[in-house]
């Protein structure tokens, strides 16, 4: 009796799904989050299993469940779970693509706020990109410490206000630097991608990324830019392991060491600190790197640079304590899982 009821339920559910799928196919698939072809295949699969239970016997044999009393039912459940996971990954992929489209729109609108020079006139020099979220208190000191020139090239400061709730944008404008603002908080990775887009439009030679919280020492910027200016590298990463830095926690330090080794293995690089946001990159090579991550931007940038054939090196820098306010990095667990997700996603694509 239970088996018969299950088969009846399978027939009913399969027929409903198949009918819905056919209806959506006739309407051109409009109004559906799930493609009608996938819905139709699932419905037909349920009908096949309900009408001909031996349909799953090959899979049952592969799973080693032949001859088991409930082997056929377990096989159907295993296949159902597998299909469920595939549909979940598909939905997540669609959501990710939709998020990327929104992010591109936000970056384009934000970049349009900045009046750039004529397309045939290059600004040149080094663009110092400072992503900032609620950093009105720290920005004045950070901006004033940026040297007027590094490695023989003039510096230009760009603050990317990432949807701040305080007066971050107003403070930056009052200091006479270039400012663009995101309408909503999108993440440091999204802010930096806006900076890269503007760097390409301005026609600068080098892009330096600098945190707005005072942890990076602008006086050390020359170390980052010099290898690029001299033609020895395309991407230079600042390393607290080679320089100096106060430990945030032993757990995070261990995670940075582990992920640094993993990225070096996957990307063929030899850097010592992949979690440091103080770095410099040749602006003309930015277009060769695929950017999709609004958060946990570092591993995507490093693996992307290695894949694009950029010459990557690192130099010693000092990481200072945050000047004021609270860190926005989140817990060690969230930070670690986010980093791992981006590493694997970037490597697999």
Textual characterization of the structure:
With 349 residues, the protein is α/β, with parallel strands linked by helices. The protein has two domains: 2-106, no CATH class; 122-348, Spore Coat Polysaccharide Biosynthesis Protein SpsA, Chain A, CATH 3.90.550. Helices cover 49% and strands 15% of the residues. Strands 1, 2, 3, 4, 5, 6, 7 and 8 form an eight-stranded mixed β-sheet that branches. β3 (153-162), α6 (168-174) and β4 (178-182) form a beta-alpha-beta unit. α1 (2-26) packs antiparallel against α2 (36-51) and α9 packs parallel to α11. The protein is elongated, with a radius of gyration of 26 Å. The two termini are 48 Å apart. The model has no long low-confidence stretch (mean pLDDT 84).
User: Shape from CA axes?
Assistant: elongated
Order of helices and strands: HHHHEHEEHEHEHEHEHEH
| CATH class placement of the largest domain | Alpha Beta
Helix content: 40-55%
Rg result: 26 Å
List the helices and strands and how they pair.
Blueprint lengths: L1 H25 L9 H16 L5 H6 L8 H41 L14 E7 L6 H7 L3 E2 L2 E10 L5 H7 L3 E5 L5 H15 L3 E4 L11 H9 L5 E11 L4 H18 L11 E4 L14 H11 L4 E8 L12 H17 L1
Parallel strand pairs: 1-3, 1-5, 3-4, 6-8
Antiparallel strand pairs: 2-3, 5-7, 6-7
What brief labels describe this structure?
349 residues, elongated, 8-stranded mixed sheet, 2 domains, 11 helices, alpha/beta
In short:
The chain is built from eleven helices and eight strands.
């Amino acid at each position: 009796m239970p088996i018969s009821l299950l088969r009846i339920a399978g027939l009913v559910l399969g027929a409903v799904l198949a009918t819905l799928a056919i209806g959506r196919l006739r309407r051109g698939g409009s109004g559906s989050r799930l493609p009608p072809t996938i819905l139709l295949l699932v419905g037909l699969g349920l009908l096949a299993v309900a009408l001909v239970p031996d349909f799953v016997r090959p899979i049952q044999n592969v799973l080693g469940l032949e001859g088991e009393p409930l082997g056929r039912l377990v096989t159907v459940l295993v296949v159902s779970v597998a299909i469920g996971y595939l549909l979940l990954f598909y939905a997540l992929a669609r959501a990710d693509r939709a998020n990327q489209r929104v992010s591109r729109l936000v970056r384009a609108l934000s970049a349009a706020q900045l009046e750039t020079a004529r397309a045939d006139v290059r600004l040149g020099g080094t663009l110092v990109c400072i992503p900032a979220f609620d950093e009105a208190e720290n920005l004045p000191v950070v901006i004033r410490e940026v040297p007027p020139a590094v490695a023989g090239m003039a510096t230009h400061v760009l603050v990317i206000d990432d949807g701040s709730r305080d007066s971050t944008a107003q403070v930056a404008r009052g200091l006479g630097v270039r400012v663009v603002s995101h309408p909503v908080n999108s993440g440091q990775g999204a802010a930096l991608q806006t900076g890269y887009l503007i760097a390409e439009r301005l026609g600068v030679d080098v892009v330096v990324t600098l945190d707005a919280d005072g942890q990076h020492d602008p006086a050390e910027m020359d170390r980052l830019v010099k290898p690029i200016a001299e033609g020895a590298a395309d991407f230079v990463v600042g390393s607290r392991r080679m320089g100096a830095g106060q430990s945030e926690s032993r757990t995070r330090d261990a995670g940075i060491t582990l992920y640094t080794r993993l990225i070096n293995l996957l990307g063929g690089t030899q850097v010592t600190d992949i979690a440091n946001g103080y770095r410099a990159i040749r602006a003309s090579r930015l277009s060769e790197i695929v950017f999709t991550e609004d958060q946990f931007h570092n591993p995507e940038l490093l693996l992307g640079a290695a894949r694009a054939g950029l010459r990557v090196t690192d130099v010693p820098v000092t990481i200072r304590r945050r000047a004021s306010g609270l860190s926005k990095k989140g817990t060690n667990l969230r930070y670690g899982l986010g980093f791992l997700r981006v590493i694997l996603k970037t490597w697999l694509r």
